[in-house]
Design goal:
The chain has one domain: Cytochrome Bc1 Complex, Chain D, domain 2 (Orthogonal Bundle), CATH 1.10.760. Helix 2 crosses helix 6 and helix 5 crosses helix 6. About 40% of the residues lie in helices and about 0% in strands. By secondary structure, the protein is mainly α. The structure holds heme C. The site of heme C has 17 residues, from helix 3, helix 4 and helix 5.
Length: about 140
């Protein structure tokens, strides 16, 4: 199932309102991570990522939410969760790349998924990107 929402039009119509909060999830990829991972990822994000990337869950048009907005979703549509995992592990945080453990990276990816309104499931997100071949967002 694919719910296409013309986000630009929606944003214009509802100018000023917090549009994203009422928009349905744009992806069918729910259930890829467990809730405690996203919780740990949230603290880690605040410590290591927030200064450059801004609040993930601030879906307010004026606030930069670089990893949780529609530009991010468009850029990652069709690319795999594993690709995101590898980018974070290898290139981030940009001021200290390579410093995250696989477990920390999985927590952060789980938090990024949750911040993009993808729901949690029963199983933890694996720490091995080779296993994460699912598309992050449906093309
Ligand atoms: C010192 C600033 C800085 C910090 C800290 C930082 N990043 Fe980044 N990040 C960047 C910049 C700049 C880019 C864009 C890089 C590029 O396009 O080459 C980026 C890109 C990204 C992307 C790809 C975004 C996209 O739209 O494709 C992800 C995912 C990401 N960062 C995650 C993280 C995570 C997770 C952390 C915390 C562990 C983090 N970053 C910490 C500066 C930072």
């Amino acid at each position: 199932m694919c719910t296409r929402v013309p986000s630009v039009t929606t944003a214009l119509v509802a100018a000023g309102a917090v549009v994203a909060l009422v928009r349905p999830s744009l992806s069918a990829q729910d259930g890829l991570y467990a809730p405690p991972q996203a919780g740990r990822g949230a603290s880690l994000y605040e410590e290591r990522c927030l200064s450059c990337h801004g609040e993930l869950t601030a879906f307010v048009p004026e606030v930069a939410a670089l990893l949780g907005d529609h530009t991010f979703r468009n850029r990652w549509k069709g690319r795999t969760v594993g690709e995101l995992f590898e980018l974070v592990q290898v290139e981030m945080p940009q001021d200290d790349p390579g410093s995250l453990t696989p477990a920390e990276t999985a927590d952060l990816v789980a938090y990024i998924l949750s911040g993009n309104r993808l729901g949690a499931g029963d199983r933890a997100l694996p720490e091995t990107p080779e296993q994460l071949t699912q598309p992050l967002f449906q093309p």
